[in-house]
Amino acid sequence: MRLRSIGYVRSVFFGLLLVGLIYIWGEQVHNFAVSLFAIAFALVFSVKELCSSFNGSMMRFRGNIYNLGDRIEIGNMRGDVIDMNIFSTTILEVGHDAKSHHHTGRTVVFPNSMITTHMVVNESFIDHFYFHNIKIPLSIEDNWQTAYEVLLSIAKEECTPYLELARKRMMETAKQKSIVLPSVEPRIIVQMPEPEKINLILRFPGPVHLKGRLEQTILRKFLETFFQKPSEKK
Predict the structure, then answer these.
(1) Domain 1-124 in this protein, CATH class
(2) Which of 33, 105, 164, 214 has the fewest CB atoms below 10 angstroms from its CB?
């Protein structure tokens, strides 16, 4: 009975002591617990981001998604890859519109974790070469056959210096990926989107860094050759 009484007294004493400590130091204990939780959450979040970025880097490496010099689009960012490591990628920004080829002068750095959560578009699939499309709208009154011949002739003339290398890169990529890729020769598709309208869609290959220059050269020569010669239009 004496031992039991001593045990009860001891339990009550420690209970009262604990309640007293909580009452006296309750606010400090609460603040310490909140701080400890915040630190633990920050550590877990940081490690999670690092692991996600490392996983994205491994995905990029295993899938050969992009390399230095490639022009890519991810999320709302588009540009040429100028640096990359296991945690982040740096691109030289290009206009967001797919038809824009002018650099904005800004660099954009994004974590590699975005590779696992966003679609990545690589415009340099054929080893720094690309297929580009130009749409030439015409009226039904225009001589579209002449426009077809003029546009195709100009495209072949401008693309000739790059065709052999593009053909070689195409064959290497087709063999590596075990897929059949289209011919690199310039091609034109004729469309009639609506009555009285004709579109000539030119597809041609070229180096990525000359994308805008080739497009402007072909367009300028076509306008000078076709639209400024009325006798050839009808």
Answers:
(1) mainly beta
(2) 105
Task: Look up tokens 């869609």; give the residue.
Answer: 201
The percentage of residues in the chain with a pLDDT greater than 70, rounded to a whole number, is: 81
Structure tokens at 27: 């606010």
> Scanning the structure block, which residue is given the tokens 């022009």?
71
Largest separation between any pair of C-alpha atoms in the chain: 124
- Is residue 223 within 8 A of residue 142, CB to CB? The reply is no
Under CATH, which number does the domain 129-233 receive?
A: 3.30.70
Tell me which residue has tokens 């180096």: 207
User: Mean of the pLDDT values across residues 112-129?
Assistant: 81
The two three-digit tokens of residue 11, written as one number: 């339990």
Q: In whole angstroms, what is the distance from residue 65 CA to residue 8 CA?
A: 71
Of residues 199, 225, 198, the one with CA closest to residue 141: 198
Helices (H), the chain: 2-63, 144-177, 211-222, 230-233
pTM above 0.85, yes or no: no
Where are the chain's structural domains? 1-124, 129-233
